[in-house]
Amino acid sequence: MQAGSSGGGSRGPQALGSGDGGRVRDSKTKHRTYEPAYVHIVRIVSARIAAGEYRPGDQLPSESGFCAEFDVSPMTLRRAVNILVDRGLVTTAQGRGTFVRGLYLGEASFTLQQLTDRWRDASTEVRLLTASIVPAREDVAVMLGLGPGDSAVFLRRLFLNDGHPFMCHSEFVVYDPRRPLVESQLQITSLDGVLKSAGGEGFARARLSIRAVNLDDETAGYLERPAGTAVFCLEHTFEDFDGAPVSWGQFYFLSDEFQLVTTLGADWPE
Amino acid sequence: MQAGSSGGGSRGPQALGSGDGGRVRDSKTKHRTYEPAYVHIVRIVSARIAAGEYRPGDQLPSESGFCAEFDVSPMTLRRAVNILVDRGLVTTAQGRGTFVRGLYLGEASFTLQQLTDRWRDASTEVRLLTASIVPAREDVAVMLGLGPGDSAVFLRRLFLNDGHPFMCHSEFVVYDPRRPLVESQLQITSLDGVLKSAGGEGFARARLSIRAVNLDDETAGYLERPAGTAVFCLEHTFEDFDGAPVSWGQFYFLSDEFQLVTTLGADWPE
DNA sequence: TAGTGGTCTAGACCACTTA
DNA sequence: AAGTGGTCTAGACCACTAG
């Protein structure tokens, strides 16, 4: 069992420490595709957890034990363990050991990446519905830190796939004649462009929240759905490097075209 | 500037290599709260990015440069850089350098942790509305891999806070007389208990998805909202270590009580 | 070829837990 | 005291990129 699991010809590159002529190694084996040792270890241990060989609550072999089994140095082993830790598969307790964790729904993590993947293809059209300079409404002024009478740029975009709208974006941007924000915003014609900070660089931070809302009449019209339909509302606020808000808006997207999906546990493809 | 940035008395513990009597170090300083060097570096560099000192697209100092500035070994510096990389703040390109990344909405990551945090307090009540063994409907049979005529356990729970319902859970569990799944399920009386794999250990994987849906009449009644109200629907499928599904169900929770929230960029508290 | 990131070593010392 | 995880070193060698 010991070194057997590295029989696939794991390492490849190998550092020769100070004077270690006697180091026996099963390297020299061919290793196209070259997989780093720590990745290899992560895969092996993940597979054991996924297969139930190590069960939730079980204590894993100690670091020195794993070092012996995989024939790596402590640092390399720890790197692998750290990865397992922040994937949520195991926990470590100083002085006690490393233990397999059970699943916990609260740790599920959803990303918007899928939104991009879903519509990255060229058939996605971005249609600019509105672009105007407007006096900031009460709520807009609050969110953008404007005074009464200040102006903001209002943008509305519709995203279509094969002619069918699936997302609508409304945004208020601080109007600052010095910065060409507006102009650069108007150039955006791709979903990627919009998602890329809704307008290139210059933003330091974004605060995001997702709600489930009923479509209002106007947005429902744009999305060609009945008013009241449940959709996702992704609200965003962008700040510059001084912490001042420069943009506030919402994406509305249809839930039947896009869901947040994820997986929990030791299985996802390495 | 060189070692200045570690003037706060960063390190504390310090490894003495082979024979390095002459190593000068600003340690020995008091260091309660002890912050590891790599964490320290992550904080410093993050702060510089957040402040706009390093701008998106900029190339960071080389590793050897940083090693000199922070007076650490390459491994320690790399550990810090790796953390920055998987926080999405920088990218590394072998042979070219390390660069600051701009924000990208597609990378936003939302977790359900907030759901737990929000209602971890004791005032949350879990009310078991239904618990029965039922013949598997068509859709249930498909999701659980059952044949026609097989049975499933149906559970429905309502979660209340100060007497106000905010979440409803419906679940079908494979009925297996050998396993005490049902019994253990019935013991659960806390939100944490439900989220913890909806019933203790024994699950290897979970597949989750979130949709925005309109409340149906029945669920609307439980949640005391008008039918049609937009809510989140978190659907889950749990599998055992053989990959066989053992549980399928949905959480419905009110969006006005709970949103998915996150932040993008270099700012979140270390 | 020079410079960059990427991996790895063979230890060291520390802090913590358990007995 | 023995065993565990946690951090760190001072290099080494590799792979890649660019002038």
Secondary structure blueprint with pairings:
The structure is a homodimer of 270-residue chains.
Chain A (H helix, E strand, L loop, with lengths): L36 H14 L12 H8 L3 H13 L3 E4 L3 E4 L8 E3 L1 H7 L4 E12 L2 H7 L6 E11 L2 E11 L6 H7 L3 H5 L9 E10 L2 H7 L6 E10 L5 E10 L5 E6 L5
Antiparallel strand pairs in A: 1-2, 4-5, 5-6, 6-9, 7-8, 8-9
Helix pairs in contact in A: 1-3, 2-3
The structure holds a DNA duplex (19 and 19 nucleotides).
Brief rundown of the structure:
The structure is a homodimer of 270-residue chains. By secondary structure, chain A is an alpha+beta fold.
List keywords for this structure.
two-stranded antiparallel sheet; disordered N terminus; Chorismate lyase; 2 domains; alpha+beta; 6-stranded antiparallel β-sheet; homodimer; Arc Repressor Mutant, subunit A; DNA-binding
Q: Which homologous superfamily in CATH is the superfamily of the largest domain in chain A? A: Chorismate lyase-like
Structural class of chain A: alpha+beta
- Based on the structure given, which CATH architecture of the largest domain in chain A is correct? 3-Layer(aba) Sandwich
Using only CA atoms, what is the Rg of chain A?
A: 26 Å
Major beta sheet, strand line-up of chain A? 4-5-6-9-8-7
How many separate domains make up the residues of chain A?
Answer: 2
Distance between the termini of chain A: 23 Å
Largest sheet of chain A: 6 strands, antiparallel
